[in-house]
Structure formats: C-alpha cells, structure tokens
Amino acid sequence: MSSISPSTKPTPRRLMLAGALLIGLLANACGSSKTTSTAKGSSTASATAAANPCAKSSLPLHTSGVLTVATDSPAYPPYFQDNKPFNGKGFESAVAYAIAGKLGFSPSEVKWTVEPFDSSYAPGPKSFDFDINEISITPARAKVVDFSVPYYTNPQGIIVAASSPYAHATSLAAFKGAKIGVQIGTTSLDAVNSEIKSSSQPQVFNTSNDVVSAFKIHRVDAIVVDLATAFDLTSTELSHATIAGQFNAPGGDNWGVLLSKGSRLTACVNQAVTALRGDGTLGALSHRWIASAASVPVLH
Q: Which of 28, 53, 71, 231 is most open to solvent, judged by the fewest CB atoms within 10 Å of its CB?
C-alpha cells in the first residue's frame, strides 16, 4: 500500500482553491455554449431570410405585423359584398385573402384601408401594402406604380334598355350613333374610343354611380362597363336593362394587384398570384363570384 507524504497531502485550503477553479471553468464553459447557441440561432434566421426574401418575417410591411390591403369605398359586388371588404365575400375580397394566405398571413392579420380608385395609381408613396380594386394594367399607370401579374382578364359589356333597338345589335358598328356613358379614367373609356368609334364623344362621368344615374334618366342610350359589373348592374340596379354584347378592350383588360413603384413586395405578390392561378384557386373564385359570360354575344 502506498502512503502519502506530508509534503504532498492536500490541505483543506488547497481543496477549496481547486474546487473554486473547477466551478469557474464550468461556468465559463456553460456561458460559452449559450452564447454560441444564440449566435447560431441568429445566423440561421438571417440565412433563412436571405434564402427566402418572401418569408413572412422578411416582408417590408407598411405596418409591422399586419398586411395592409386597400380598395375603394363603396365597394361593389360581385367583387365585394355588403360594402365590407374584410368579410372575405366577393371575388376581390376572396382573392386578397388568398394572396395574404400565400404570403403567410392569417385573416386576422389583414387590415383593410380605403383608397379612392383614381388616386390609387397616382405617383407617390402609398399608405398600403397592395391595392385590389378592378384596376386595369396600363402602360401609363405602370410608369408610376407596380402591378402584379394579372389575377383576372375582363372583357367590356354594353348595357342598354331591354326595350331599346340597341338590344338586338349584332356588331359594334350599330352603336356608332348611340349616346354612350362611361366613367372617367377607366379602360372602358379607352375601349369606347378605340373600338366603338362613336360619331359623337362619349359622355364621361366622375363615378360609376353617376354613369348609372345618367342611364336611368335616359341621358345616355348605353353605358360601357367591365362585363362582371354589367352582370351585377342588370341583376340589381337596372332590372329593365340587358347586356347587348361584350367586346375586348385594346390589348385585353387585365387586372393586377397594385403596389408602390419599386416595392420589394411586388415579386412576392407575383409569386403568390402565380401559385393561385396554378393551383386553380383563381379559376374557382372567378367561377363562384363572377357570372359566366357564355350567354352574352361577342361583338366585333
């Protein structure tokens, strides 16, 4: 049996010093592990954001934590129901929530705000992340705002009184002498000027309500609106009217989600709309909320 000499035998003081040193080393080791773990987590999050700029946490939002969506007021069917964009009913309300879902937002994380139609595509900063309001994609507008890829392509419809001789028109030429009403700043106005080529200038009104009122008092013989709106008007406000025909606007009337010029959200919204078209969601929503155009003759 070996023995410990007095010179090498640990004293209580040496034991206490060794224990303190050991505890210090262990504490430093634990602290280093925690710091390393935190650094790794932060690095991983940054790498994920860099790899996927359309991740919810990476999106540059107007208001932190919510997706701000704009549309006009009043908001009409079949695009919105009961003038309540937030209820998810109507074609564009449903499309907005579908886009939000693709971007990672729940319905409760979507905030709606009012933006008049003709100011939505005006130059300058925006108070929303995107606007959805039957806004046609045109070269002039695209110079000052961004548009998503189209979520809907809509023809134009011509509404006339059911008892009018124009109700039996077989071509656009039949409307050459008609008094036509249309809303200012719309592609419907461009379509009338380029396709119908009326012998007199169309009567232009500030709002869609003014156009409808002019038709009701027989100030105009016909009004031109997008076909989806024509279906709605003839089934609600204009019960004694009919859709004489449909025709395509120059280049097709494509509707896009509107964003501020150069928005970092544009590519992500494009990705969402493309995915919704690919999986059949846009087609299903269009079928549900917008009446079929099959019964309306195409006029040339």
A: 28
